[in-house]
Design goal:
Layout lengths: L9 H11 L11 E5 L6 E2 L3 H7 L5 H6 L28 E2 L1 E5 L3 E7 L6 E7 L4 H11 L12 E4 L11 H7 L5 H6 L16 H5 L6 E4 L3
Antiparallel strand pairs: 1-4, 2-3, 5-6, 7-8
């Protein structure tokens, strides 16, 4: 639930929504997409479409309300919309806003340990670690002949992201594995396959030169 002045802008509402769920919404507020949860009447928490959302399904009724032409512009005022204007009288259990997340892509540089090859990957921030494994394998099928699920990924970060000019990276290119790399590849630092990339604030908030190490499991 969000309380906000009727004279506020849609962008103000986005900020309020993000503040309510920082653990869930790790994108910047400007990345949220808002739509009115209304088709003749407001949606209600008892509606089948809302129950479907709670099961993590997106029914056609919700998809129809979240079309691009129905997107609320960030600089519009809430009062610009007749149904949220002067005579807006919210009723308990009514749902007023549908919140969508923008699909932003990040460019990641992945270094294969034991080979030193760098693989550039573009992937959506909402993707899972397992999705990243698939992308990495597709980039080097001649090198990575194991199934993608056999790859082990670790963040190439110890206070800061590694850089292509670092001695540790140069050592990998000589097919050596220095202690600095071994320290980053400890089992407790392994990225779980079902974690989302956006779950890790280090990945989302930075623009590193080296994001992760794929390691072939043999």
């Amino acid at each position: 639930p969000v309380k906000i002045k009727i004279s506020a802008s849609v962008q103000d509402l986005k900020e309020h929504i993000r503040e309510k769920a920082p653990d869930l919404i790790r994108l910047g507020a400007h990345m949220l997409k808002l739509y009115l949860a209304r088709d003749g009447r407001w949606l209600n928490s008892g509606d089948d479409d809302i129950k479907a959302l709670q099961r993590k399904e997106v029914p056609d009724g919700i998809k129809n309300l979240m079309q691009e032409q129905k997107l609320l512009g960030p600089f519009a005022k809430l009062s610009d919309h007749a149904c949220i204007g002067k005579y807006f009288n919210p009723v308990p259990e009514d749902i007023h806003i549908l919140v969508g997340l923008s699909e932003r892509e990040v460019a990641m540089e992945c270094v294969v340990v034991c080979d030193g090859r760098t693989l550039p990957v573009k992937i959506k921030i909402s993707a899972f670690v397992q999705d990243l494994k698939e992308h990495i394998r597709e980039k080097a099928p001649d090198l990575i002949r194991l199934g993608a699920h056999m790859l082990k990924l670790y963040l190439a970060r110890d206070g800061r992201w590694l850089n292509s000019g670092d001695d540790d990276i140069k050592a990998l290119q000589r097919k050596e594995v220095p202690d600095g790399i071994k320290n980053l590849m400890q089992e407790q630092k392994l990225l779980g396959p079902f974690a989302k990339l956006s779950d890790d604030r280090k990945i989302f908030q930075s623009r590193p030169r080296r994001h992760s190490y794929p390691r072939r499991t043999v």
